[in-house]
Design brief:
2 copies of one chain form a homodimer.
Chain A lengths: L2 E7 L1 H4 L7 H8 L4 E7 L5 H11 L10 E5 L19 H18 L4 E5 L6 H12 L11 H18 L2 E3 L1 H6 L4 H4 L9 H17 L22 H8 L2
Helix pairs in contact in A: 2-9, 3-4, 4-6
Amino acid sequence: MRGQVVLFGDSITEQSFRQGGWGAALANAYARKADVVLRGYGGYNTKWALFLLHHIFPPDSGRPPIATTIFFGANDAALSGRTSERQHVSIEDYKQNLRKIVLHLKECSPTMQIVLITPPPVCEEGRHAYAKSLYGENAMKLPERTNEVTGQYASACVETAKEMGVFSVDLWSKMQETDGWQKKFLSDGLHLTPDGNAIVYQEVIKIFNKAGLSADNMPLDFPHHSEIDAKNPEGAFQQKCF
Amino acid sequence: MRGQVVLFGDSITEQSFRQGGWGAALANAYARKADVVLRGYGGYNTKWALFLLHHIFPPDSGRPPIATTIFFGANDAALSGRTSERQHVSIEDYKQNLRKIVLHLKECSPTMQIVLITPPPVCEEGRHAYAKSLYGENAMKLPERTNEVTGQYASACVETAKEMGVFSVDLWSKMQETDGWQKKFLSDGLHLTPDGNAIVYQEVIKIFNKAGLSADNMPLDFPHHSEIDAKNPEGAFQQKCF
């Protein structure tokens, strides 16, 4: 049957089928060509992701994904000593965990296209406004994430991708090329607006196209309806069914 | 692993992951709980769908879907003797084909929840405007589908669902309860606007809830991040991983 494209990541992946989401846009682009499989885990960092790895990507599945996006780091980059400390993973451990994930996927399939996506930038003002909307004056005054520190994780992600010979999307840098990225791309200083989702979609599609996974060049799973002869439909299906 | 919900149908299913699409909304609602699998085939009628049945739903898969939506009829209802004649299937054959599809799914799994969805209503004026936008003055003056005839297919679909003891969504009737359904729910007199997609989503979710497939009551596939003890993450995964 069709190949699978697995989206493995944190909440920004889990929410990718909401209105305007990048996951849904991929599923639409690959309709009748590949299945887009959602494996997003809100709040997860790379350390916790490792516990899922062998469940989601069993080494002996016989049918490994044709491509996987790995999109962690937004939680790893939560600061030590602040409200989201429990999600914090050091940069060195983040890199090491990404390496383990990539190595495992390569073991599952040497031909799998692997795309590491960096965390998006953080708008500290947006995070604080969001915290105040939840907790009022009790909201922590000190940010639980900063854009600067998240940028270090983004660099580490890009470096790891280079080191491992896989693709990467430097979302942190890409989004900051646009004026007003803070509100245009981020809904609460961290998660994505529909415009932010569109950036992820465009960047991932660019890489899939480079990697030989252009939806335009992939065959339909079954005959296009215009190829079916109404008087002899069997003909089209005999040729095109596997 | 997780159960699968398969969306089997024509273009209205194939396009269901576009912006505001009902398929994407289902995938979002079942994130971390079930996989929503897109099996939509633009232009297909139930006669051609039968050729796909054993490929998409192999009887011996060992892992049949937990639920399937069957959403055909818009093409079966194309009128004989008009521009879309090749897609026409008689009402009797439409019913018989739906019966075959349901029977096959029941053979695959006696516990699968099956939902037949009727074609949406047709706005003949909208269809004509669409044809003119494509073909100008060469557009056929006579409609290739009428709302009245499509309504007969919708009734046949509901009857067949009753006869076979499976669920149905009478989309044709439901949409026409709202004033201005012609433009509110249909983009070209046949396919769905985001508002039209929202109706399909709401109606399907209602049935899934009745059928014991409420996403709210289904367990997460892995621990919620708040259940993970940062100092002893293994604990949460030992309990919750299968």
